[in-house]
Amino acid sequence: MAQDRTFVIDGFAFHTLQDARDAQKEAEGVEYLKEKIAGQDPEKVLELYHKMLDEQVFSTPVGLMFERDLSEDLRNLPELAEYEIRPVDVYPVVPENITEKERDRLQKEHAKENRTKDNRIRFSVILNIVLVALVIGMFFIVSTSNNVNIINYENALIDKYEDWQNALEAREAELDAREEAYNGQN
Fold it and tell me: For position 1, what pLDDT does the model report?
């Protein structure tokens, strides 16, 4: 019969005493935070907002509405960019009156989602390691090869012109020697 009672906190109707107590605690926390952030620097308020989201401080509609209202207030401030303000995260609430079988099913689904996320992260890390290794390998090949490339083209060009200059000087010396020999014969 206790479940037929309705508890109203900040305009929200709660059907269990525990939910109403949780909402009342959050309502008190909301009032405290409103006093604390009044007149604060927008950057500090944004930092507090992100900390609330990260730590999942609120879970009832009372707290989530406060987070949503705070995010709207932050969006309206010209000092802050839209992309800096994260949306409010809503986490699923597992009812207390579900069967053990249903609870196990929900836990398995949640575990499967976590494994999928872990697999994606693992794949991403492995792929990044492989790509870094490929880039390192490419730099190694480029630095050790004798072919002209973007890294050693200047040295190759200088060497080519030095070889031409040496060849021209050798030919010039040979021509000078022939000319002297010819002039010496006349």
Answer: 38
